[in-house]
Amino acid sequence: MDDLLRQVRDGRPRAIARLISLVENSETAAETAVTALYPHTGQAHVIGITGPPGAGKSTLVNELAKAFRRLDQPVGIIAVDPSSPFTGGALLGDRVRMRDLAGDRGIFIRSMASRGNLGGLAEATAAVIKILDAAGYPVILVETVGAGQAEVDIATMAHTTLVIEAPGMGDDIQTFKAGILEIADVLVVNKADRPGADRTIKSLELMLHLGAGPAVGHHGRLPAEAASEPLIADEVWSVPVQPTTAVNGEGIPELVDVIQRHWRYLQSSSNWLAKEKIRSRREMERLLQARLLRQLRVSVSLDLQEALITAVAAREMDPYTAVAHLFAKLSP
Amino acid sequence: MDDLLRQVRDGRPRAIARLISLVENSETAAETAVTALYPHTGQAHVIGITGPPGAGKSTLVNELAKAFRRLDQPVGIIAVDPSSPFTGGALLGDRVRMRDLAGDRGIFIRSMASRGNLGGLAEATAAVIKILDAAGYPVILVETVGAGQAEVDIATMAHTTLVIEAPGMGDDIQTFKAGILEIADVLVVNKADRPGADRTIKSLELMLHLGAGPAVGHHGRLPAEAASEPLIADEVWSVPVQPTTAVNGEGIPELVDVIQRHWRYLQSSSNWLAKEKIRSRREMERLLQARLLRQLRVSVSLDLQEALITAVAAREMDPYTAVAHLFAKLSP
């Protein structure tokens, strides 16, 4: 493992790929890797990219990667694709991309599919981000498919979260996606050459305007207690709406500018430490829960777990009492 | 408290409202109430209703409530509305509904808004469902706004989950909502009198067809290990697509039929205990995590928490080591 970690820090792609496979398949490996690599992380700009499949997200991620490569920045790409009967196809996505970006040693691409549960996926993604960070990729693009918790989790991992939209989605939809708009640092209207793009841009701007609340607006989902250091109100990032047409590269340089401006904003702002602490607290909460569940597997026999669950399902025992039994068995 | 709980079991609306307020504001009250009422629960059919705001969900919930009332069934309605700069308005929703359903003592309506964090909201909602169940409401409608974790959490609480769509949302959208389709036991296309309704119904049916995988298709998100008792393959519920026009009541009796058919399917099926156990396990996991966080607040000083978070944010300590410190402080 030591040798592998050294090779990862030297940026050797095969070592990186091997370590990621280890980390995906074992919580212990993730712990070992992150513990060892953590002091060497914190250099990368982690950029989350999310939005509906039809919005042209993968093309946009490709174009962003190429744009950062033109700036001589090595780029790591993590495509998070929770396995689903309706989505799937992580490998195919990789292959399409591989063809386009193949042969560029400054690009590392990895698709991750859900292994059993979403918590595990978030865990593994957090570890892979750290691996690529420690391996020396200054730009890490994390792409998520679909809606829901995965997006929110990634927003807490990414420094800059792009939410991609496309014209031709009704007004209803934009309301529907309110929860996703809240995690955006930058809104991208892709396929901006299509009819209706202006209307989409205008309604997004309107929504942002309506939603503009106090200070922490775009990270409003975090529990109030998390912001132990108050964010400073006059240093609020105003979420821009950036049009792009990824298929022909239009708007991409401007988008890169916006992304870099957000990065400079984060770093120069006195909010930096406060935001890093929010991120750290989130990660620690996730790890603590994972650890609790692991401890549970170790300390409480499957038979007892099964007996308690059955008793609760049969209304013979209430869930609080059952949980008290479980909790008593945990000896940290 | 004992007196209050007795009045709740007698179905007194004012006592129910008071207990819900207590439960919303205190985890201890939730524990006391659920522990006491749990043996009297398990009678109600819990129906989750979710979908985008534009789909006419509230009107549909109203019409459903009236339809169940015509069958002489008391109905409890819980509207879950995570506070958001973009949504809000739980109270207004109540008032609109109140006007329509006012004076019917067989209907109890409660709106719940997020108090700080989504975990707390799921917790409180689970407790309120049990209160209404123990108070004797045989039908409980739980309405959620927006997309994301709230829907998934509710799907694990509800016996029957309706996902409401409306015509006029592009094809992209339907792909986008794949994650939400997965939680549906019944798909409702509301505003079915609008142009494009047929197309929406057809594309939903196509998606359901494409997504039809092995046995547990529509609950595919649950971790494999949760299904400790395997679901039986030849007793699979085939998700129907039901058109409605809630504003004039069209399709509502048919929807009620479908809902009741799903309820009978659940009860007659040998999957019943397996599904109850999945629900119980989920609830216990949620309670265990809540308990862990509470224990953390009690056992670890804020100063130490703050010091660890700061050390992680400053890369002076890795998150696994920090979590090990926290975990060691927990004495269950």
β-strand number of chain A:
7
Order of helices and strands of chain A: HHHEHEHEHEHEHHEHEHHHH
Name the poorly predicted regions of chain A: 83-93, 170-176, 213-231
Mean pLDDT of chain A: 80
Helix content of chain A: 40-55%
Query: Percent of residues of chain A in beta strands?
Result: 5-15%
Q: Order of strands across the widest beta sheet of chain A?
A: 3-2-4-1-5-6-7
Count of helical stretches of chain A: 14
| Overall form of chain A | globular
Describe this structure in words.
The structure is a homodimer of 332-residue chains. Chain A folds into 2 domains: 40-272, Rossmann fold, CATH 3.40.50.300; 300-329. In chain A, β2, α5 and β3 form a beta-alpha-beta unit. Chain A has helices at residues 2-9, 13-25, 27-37, 57-70, 90-101, 118-134, 149-157, 171-176, 178-181, 197-211, 252-268, 272-299, 302-313, 319-329, and strands at 45-50, 75-81, 107-113, 139-144, 160-165, 186-189, 241-243. The first copy, chain A, has a 7-stranded parallel sheet with strand order 3-2-4-1-5-6-7, with helices on both faces. The model of chain A is unreliable at 83-93, 170-176 and 213-231 (pLDDT under 50). With 332 residues, chain A is an alpha/beta fold. The first copy, chain A, contains 14 helices and 7 strands. The interface between A and B is large, with 89 and 89 residues.
Task: Describe the structure in brief.
The structure is a homodimer of 332-residue chains. In chain A, 53% of the residues lie in helices and 12% in strands.
